[in-house]
């Protein structure tokens, strides 16, 4: 026990609270302290008895870690790309604005770091958002030369980017990028819901009529009927009834093809992929036979629609209700009563083989988007398709399937961007005097060839030289241990301008999902009993957790053995921290 380090134990305790969203008053809880006392009475004595002391220590951790984050950003090998978004607490009492920075470090590892989570009071206008972002960029030392691209998923952010472009002098249209999965989501919604009026290319007087037909088709067509059937399964009785029909359909299949009974997955109207995957849990990511292709039916010559289990289960379920409502209708008519209330689909013919075929065609159209969305999930640190270099082949796949002529436009855009990086004037050749005596005619020829090759390289565009001189990557290399950012860092001495161009572009994030994750964790932190936590402290708690997970060192100072301050290098007293960050007593 003599080697017990009070400061390290306190720090470990606070980090445990932050990492697991545990209440700060846990350390003062009598039963918890009793457990710690059984393990080590000295440890129990080291724990704070006031939640305010815990919060004060957490704020010290924030002040200790923030300079490390600023330093990491200053040493970035790439430009620093930004994503941001807003979020409001339940009831809309407080609005937070999260910012995440993306960059490559000196070793080529792509990092994503939450850097700010300020309270955004008032209307979330473009000017208010830009003001908050400018303040954040200044605090973290992100200058105009280091600022990269903005990856956002909300068109309302265009005004904010326009305001930022005036301050940092960049092309707003060029620097503002759409979130990759969000773009795919818009494409999927357009395929399903047909939201583009111009796509019909008809006279204005026909548009309103066609839109009415289209709305009716969405409600009563195959997709609408299917969604209505699924949404009706929402009570324990209906779930059990649907399970019975699954078991009945399963009994008609060979033993090897029988699958376990699963629950239906509800579609979300704003997410096209929920229509693709709506069907049975586990949401198309488990057994591939349960994805929508199986759920909606495949045109398998060896199996009719009736014998396809997922389709058969839904058909049996729908026919059960359709028959029941038809019987109730006949009874009501015989008794001269009002027809009983029932969903429209229960008074239809259900889903026929032709309807399943239409739905399958939709699935075929959405299949490239589904594959693309799955590949874009994750982070871009270890080849998990979270960075732009991992997005490029995904979007090329989608565009090749949906819009083959995109390549010419993309190539032209690449050349325009490369012109901003490449040297505008080639360096003049410097005469070199060789001390080697050419001993023969063969040596003369070799020397002339080398000099000619050097002259050609000096005049040639770095991009063209790289294309002709460097070996191509194999598919195995790309999918294996190949890392494009590391590759270009290693190429810096040979292609200085081209490598910087590549590193800056390849580190752009594929999506702005890190902001969503940040807010999701913030929502977990804000349990109903923690609503009184001050906004600055709340942001600090969230950022400390993210930074510690990212590997930044908390650097405990073990020189002191007591006191809430603990010998910390921070020059602010506890009272200063409580006052400056609005730390006060609360129930957590």
TrEMBL record:
Q: Which domain of life is it from?
A: Eukaryota
Gene Ontology molecular function, alphabetical: protein dimerization activity; zinc ion binding
Keywords, in A-Z order: Metal-binding, Nucleus, Zinc, Zinc-finger
Q: Which Pfam families match?
A: Dimer_Tnp_hAT
Compositionally biased, Acidic residues: which spans?
567-576
InterPro entries xref list:
HATC_C_dom, RNaseH-like_sf, ZnF_BED_domain_contain
Q: Where in the cell is it found?
A: Nucleus
Where it mainly occurs, coarsely classed, is: nucleus
Region called Disordered, residue ranges: 555-576
Domain HAT C-terminal dimerisation: start-end pairs: 462-547
Provide one Gene Ontology cellular component.
Answer: nucleus
Q: Which PANTHER family match?
A: ZINC FINGER BED DOMAIN-CONTAINING PROTEIN 39, ZINC FINGER BED DOMAIN-CONTAINING PROTEIN 4
Q: What name does the UniProt record give this protein? A: Dimer-Tnp-hAT dimerization containing protein
Protein's organism: Pyrenophora tritici-repentis
Recite the lineage of the species: Eukaryota, Fungi, Dikarya, Ascomycota, Pezizomycotina
């Amino acid at each position: 026990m003599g080697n017990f380090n009070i400061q390290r134990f306190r720090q470990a305790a606070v980090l445990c609270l932050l990492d697991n969203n545990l209440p700060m008053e846990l350390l003062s809880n009598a039963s918890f302290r009793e457990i710690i006392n059984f393990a080590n009475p000295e440890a129990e004595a080291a724990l704070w008895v006031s939640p305010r002391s815990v919060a004060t220590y957490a704020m010290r951790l924030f002040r200790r870690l923030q300079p490390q984050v600023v330093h990491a950003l200053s040493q970035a090998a790439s430009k620093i790309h930004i994503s941001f978004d807003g979020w409001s607490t339940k009831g809309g009492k407080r609005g937070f604005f999260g910012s995440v920075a993306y960059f490559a470090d000196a070793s080529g590892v792509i990092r994503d770091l939450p850097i700010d989570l300020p309270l955004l009071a008032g209307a979330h206008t473009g000017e208010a958002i830009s003001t908050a972002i400018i303040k954040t960029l200044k605090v973290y030392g992100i200058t105009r030369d280091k600022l990269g691209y903005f990856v956002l998923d909300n068109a309302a952010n265009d005004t904010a980017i326009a305001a930022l472009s005036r301050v940092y002098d960049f092309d707003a249209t060029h620097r503002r990028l759409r979130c990759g999965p969000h773009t795919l989501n818009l494409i999927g919604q357009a395929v399903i819901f047909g939201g583009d009026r111009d796509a019909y290319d008809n006279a204005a007087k026909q548009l309103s009529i066609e839109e009415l037909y289209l709305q009716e088709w969405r409600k009563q067509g195959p997709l609408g009927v299917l969604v209505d059937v699924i949404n009706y399964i929402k009570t324990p009785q209906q779930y059990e009834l649907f399970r019975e029909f699954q078991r009945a359909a399963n009994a008609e299949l060979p033993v090897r093809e029988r699958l376990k009974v699963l629950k239906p997955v509800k579609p979300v109207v704003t997410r096209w992929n929920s229509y693709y995957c709506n069907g049975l849990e586990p949401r198309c990511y488990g057994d591939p036979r349960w994805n929508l292709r199986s759920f909606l039916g495949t045109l398998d010559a060896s199996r009719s629609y009736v014998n396809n289990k997922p389709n058969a289960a839904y058909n049996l379920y729908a026919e059960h209700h359709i028959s029941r409502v038809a019987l109730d209708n006949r009874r009501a008519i015989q008794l001269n009563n009002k027809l009983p209330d029932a969903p429209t689909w229960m008074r239809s013919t259900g889903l026929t083989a032709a309807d399943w075929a239409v739905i399958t065609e939709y699935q075929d159209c959405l299949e490239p988007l589904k594959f693309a969305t799955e590949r874009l999930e994750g982070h871009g640190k270890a080849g998990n398709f979270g960075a732009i270099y991992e997005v490029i082949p995904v979007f090329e796949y989608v565009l090749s399937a949906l819009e083959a002529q995109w390549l010419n436009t993309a190539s032209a855009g690449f050349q325009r961007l490369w012109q901003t990086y490449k040297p505008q004037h080639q360096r003049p050749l410097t005469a070199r005097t060789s001390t080697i005596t050419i001993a023969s005619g063969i040596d003369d020829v070799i020397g002339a060839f080398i000099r000619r090759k050097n002259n050609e390289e000096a005049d040639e565009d770095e991009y063209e030289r790289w294309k002709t001189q460097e070996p191509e990557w194999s598919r195995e290399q790309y999918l294996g241990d190949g890392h494009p950012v590391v590759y270009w860092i290693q190429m810096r001495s040979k292609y200085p301008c081209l490598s910087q161009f590549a590193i800056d572009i390849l580190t752009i994030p594929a999506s702005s999902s890190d902001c969503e994750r940040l807010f999701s964790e913030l929502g977990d932190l804000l349990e109903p009993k923690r609503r009184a936590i001050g906004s600055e402290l709340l942001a600090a708690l969230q950022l400390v957790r993210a930074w510690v997970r990212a590997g930044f060192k908390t650097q405990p100072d073990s020189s002191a053995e007591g006191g809430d301050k603990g010998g910390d290098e921070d020059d602010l007293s506890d009272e200063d921290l409580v006052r400056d960050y609005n730390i006060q007593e609360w129930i957590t």
